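Fill-in record for NAD-dependent malic enzyme.
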Amino acid sequence: MAFNSIILRLELNHTLVTFGQVASAVSDAGGDIVSIDVIRPGSDNSVRDITVQVADEREKLVVDSLRAMPGIHIINVSDRTFLAHLGGKISIQPSMPIRNRDDLSRVYTPGVARVSMAIHENIDKAYSLTIKRNTVAVVTDGTAVLGLGDIGPHAAAPVMEGKAMLFKQLAEVDAFPICLDTKDTEEIIRTIKAISPIFGGINLEDISSPRCFEIEDRLAGELDIPIFHDDQHGTAIVVVAGLINALKVTGKSMENIRVVVNGIGAAGVSICKMLLASGVQHLTPVDREGAIIRGGTYTHPMWQWLASQPQLEDKPGSLHEVIAGADVFIGVSRGNVLGAEDVQLMAPDRIVFAMANPEPEIDPEVALPLVNVFATGRSDYPNQINNVLVFPGLFRGVLDCRAKVINEQIKLAAAHAIAAVVSSSELNEQYIIPSIFNEKVVKNVRRAVIEAAMRTGVARRIPPDMRSLD
Ligand SMILES: NC(=O)c1ccc[n+]([C@@H]2O[C@H](COP(=O)([O-])OP(=O)(O)OC[C@H]3O[C@@H](n4cnc5c(N)ncnc54)[C@H](O)[C@@H]3O)[C@@H](O)[C@H]2O)c1
Ligand SMILES: O=C(O)C[C@H](O)C(=O)O
Ligand SMILES: [Mg+2]
């Protein structure tokens, strides 16, 4: 159930209604008053803002029940989530003020010309003399936005702005949202290459499968800055981190578990690959048509690759059939595709990561009593397994060491770094993954990423605080 906060500005006629009656009406309709501000006091008549926490589907009920009461005039209803988006969520700040002509001639013509020529003579100077050093493009075509699907580049923008905010707040990385009005693979590749000079890295976001695989591979081969498809690898890294700790809690091991991954798109393919690299021996990937099986024939190139892996099971079936006996369910598909009856068929000490956004594969209220470890991609339940635990620290690391690429060792190092933030004394069923507000996350991920980049020879610079490791 998704909760929202609404602010109602009410004019109350006290001869007809008391505040106590307002509070009871809100509560009867399913809302919870979390704050009250008096805008205009008065003994006969007053204006107040009340902030009400309410489940999405009951919002209208709260408003309608107040509207029906005598003595109440609803001046305004505002949704705090929409208010947070008014005018967009990020802006660009200059790094110094331009106070006089002297400043102007330094940051702009004529002074800037000398700086441009210095970069022209040595292109590497772009890293020290422009924003390239610290700036990442968050690029989408709007085709796989959260679990909402192909909602287009304009509608994708709030998600991309959100990612940019998180980059900045959590890791001091400047990120810029780029929403492309094309779904053509070649045009997307060409456009990203053309805008790449100003960026130190490219975070691909919410680009649907299977185009996302070719776009990422081609860009990684053709550009010398790190390219990272967040929905693939950010998700896989955080899933492996969560699974490492969930297995400790349930006393199981990567080698012995049977894992069902539902939704073999961008996230699902990368999760399957990383699970295999982490030692999983029994894997059943499932998409809309049912299980992808060992020896099967598929037109999707990544599914065909999966079908050739010895750890894949060869028994066909629907999700409802193949989930029987599984130790772990990982969902990166769509909301509400898993029922209580499916979860009950799993092996004891079940682990369920229902990660579709915004609605998980199974309602947390239904799943929680049935499983040992439960996680979603959302922030309103314990164990938030979301790629936000990865991309800020990972890009902080690759920017700081100017890594050419993000290789498998870097990804695995990031997963272990996230898992290690939760100490053995803290670890329990409700706490397998650290909060994004835990300051150790970005620090640990950054450090692990730089070490792995140095170890594998892809770092082009050693940050001062890491020089003793050289
Ligand atoms: N928690 C996180 O950090 C995180 C990260 C990435 C993606 N996600 C979520 O995972 C989901 C998939 O994202 P993506 O980027 O991989 O999208 P995608 O479009 O690349 O892939 C989705 C896949 O799910 C399949 N699918 C759809 N309905 C299905 C069903 N009923 N049963 C089985 N498979 C089904 C599709 O055929 C497709 O292969 C989205 O809901 C997204 O929000 C969560
Ligand atoms: O945006 C998120 O919350 C995570 C992920 O990138 C998704 O697409 O769902
Ligand atoms: Mg995404």
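KEY FINDING: Residues 29 and 64 are 9 Å apart (CA to CA).
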